[in-house]
Amino acid sequence: MAELKYEITQKLASLSTNAKGWSLELNKVSWNDREPKFDLRTWDADHTKMGKGVTFNEAEARELFTGLGKFLEQ
């Protein structure tokens, strides 16, 4: 299996931390030297291990922002 290469290019928000010290974070991450995307997932304290997550390009992130804004206005 090929090694997964990643670089957190910008830390945007830490949403929560669990009892084991892993934090749910929103970051911009470059995967395998590609253009950075918005990335929401859990990370260990030194960012060497990660949980499953989801990535968004800018258009998807804008749609998510709009949808959350509408929902939270209710």
TrEMBL record:
Pfam family for this entry, one: PC4
InterPro entries, sorted: PC4-like, PC4_C
Domain of life: Bacteria
Start and end residues of each Transcriptional coactivator p15 (PC4) C-terminal domain: 20-64
Protein name: Transcriptional coactivator p15 (PC4) C-terminal domain-containing protein
Species name: Periweissella ghanensis
